[in-house]
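Ticket #4471: structure output looks truncated?

Reporter: J.K.
Steps to reproduce: submitted the chain below (186 residues) through the standard prediction queue, then opened the result file.
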Amino acid sequence: MKIFIQNMVSLRCKMMVKSELDKLGIAYKSVELGEVLLAEPITEALKQKLKEELHKSGLELIIDKKAILIEKIINIIVEMVHYSDEYPNVNFSTFLSEKMHQDYHKMAEIFSKTKGISIEHFIILHKIEKIKELIIYDDLSLTEIAFKLHYSSVAHLSKQFKQVTGLSPSFFKSISKLKRNNLEDL
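Returned output as attached by the reporter:
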């Protein structure tokens, strides 16, 4: 049995969910961003208790099919941008369609109606946060960052960075004390 969890976008969230499952004695096979594969079905009472415990940490069990779809899309994007060293070799719409076994245009329409932002813009926001992280914490050049995040050029990266933040990457680096956004807030 699979359960889906909203706002689960970090490794810390995964650890917290595992901890809550263990505390409640719920056996699971795997915990991934946004979803948990349980070893066996659980009672409604236990599901309600899990829902309450997760809610205390800002996480929510989700049942609505559209909400589950949105959460899966978000988790694929977060995983791809923040936790994967390899980007797909195809464009993201093809990658997402293949991964979800659904039509990209339908998913994009549901996503934008629900979130009020296009999938493409959502990806850009996450890439900008990753760029900020790489600028602040790594010793990569802008050329290396552009290559790592599959930008066609440093100019393209710089233009997109400036459109979103209002700052050039070099200026951002010089004032790197600027607060980064939490992934959960994007």
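Triage note (M.O.): checked the attachment and the full token line is present. The CA atoms of residues 128 and 161 lie 6 Å apart.
Status: closed, working as intended.
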